[in-house]
Amino acid sequence: MTGSINVIGYALATLGPAIGVAMIFSSAINGIARQPEARGALMGAVYIGFAVVEALAILGFVLAFVIR
Q: For site (Reversibly protonated during proton transport), what residue positions does UniProt give (predicted)?
């Protein structure tokens, strides 16, 4: 029974990173639409933010299997 509870916990834990990635890219699209010349500066911050948020998702994935 604990295995299925871990999977449910991981499924709930992925909601945070999914919302974070959506917010990062929606803000980037909004910012680029407002100031197209700032695209280079924005994309650097977007890639760093995306990497941090995805690292949290991978950490949650690993912890779902470690904690049994």
A: 54
**Quick one: angle between helices 2-13 and 15-34, nearest 10?**
10
Helix 2-13 and helix 39-66, axial crossing angle in degrees, nearest 10:
170
Give the span between the Cα atoms of 32 and 44, in whole angstroms. Answer: 13
pLDDT tens digit string along 1-58? 556 777 777 778 788 889 999 999 999 999 999 999 999 999 999 999 999 999 988 8
- CA distances to 19, 20, 53 from 40, in Å: 24, 21, 20
Q: Which two tokens stand for residue 42?
A: 């924005």
